[in-house]
Amino acid sequence: MSARRRRSRAAGGAPNAGKSSLLRALTKATPEVGDFPFTTREPVPGMMAYEDIAFQLIDTPPITADFMFAWMVEICRNADAALLVADLSTDDALEHIEVVRARLAEKKVELVPHAPRQSDAPVRLVRTLLVGNKADAPGALERLDVLAELLGKDFRRIAVSALTGQGLPELRALLFDFLEVIRVYSKMPGKKPDMDVPFVLPRGSTVMDLARKVHRDIAERLKFARLWGEGAFEGQSVKRDHALHDGDVVELHE
Fold first, then answer.
1. Which helix (H) or strand (E) holds 233?
2. Main-chain dihedrals φ then ψ at residue 213, nearest 5 degrees
3. What is the pLDDT of residues 90-124, one digit of tens each?
4. For the whole model, what pTM was predicted?
5. CA angle 51, 156, 198 (to 5 degrees)
6. DSSP per residue over 100-112, as a string?
7. CB count in 10 Å sphere of residue 142
């Protein structure tokens, strides 16, 4: 990934949960969509735009009690987060979700509501957002409430419809918040800031973290920075360990 990287998310779920339809609705990708299981047999990526950045979404084949592609484990392990897609049109949604979680847990991948960014533990914890698709179906919201209660209130959830577009703008914003990232804009001394393509950093990142993303040599020679943004006056001089916020404009000085 480049310095201005995009976060990767894997979308997993049971057969016919509507993962491919969601990918079509959220990105420009064109996965095959069908009413029969395993229409998707290979990972299909797509870029989901949110304001001035984009996230990579990966549509994966379904996971069932009888079958799971072996390479699914590595996709989930390497994702920044997962979307656990539930079919809200059926009362079997909870059973399907539990099958997905159990099959991955067998391979030491656990879908959890919260997880550290980095860990050396043998079990890979993947922070997961519960996405109830087919929210336009009768009884859909009640089924999502039941799912949330049984899975645990710590799981963040949202109801959407790939068919009608219900909840999709809210899902884009929720993904940005869920990934806990910020956008920082660079500025050359004496020039206007580059507001077109921000650097995307984890929350809590500092001026030095930004400098490392720009270039290793700049980080090594960095003396201070000037900041336009939250908690600072226009062009305030800040140290290398100054914590950045979403929307900050930073001018690095060597």
1. none
2. -70, -35
3. 999 999 999 999 999 999 999 999 988 877 788 99
4. 0.86
5. 25
6. HHHHHHHTTEEEE
7. 10
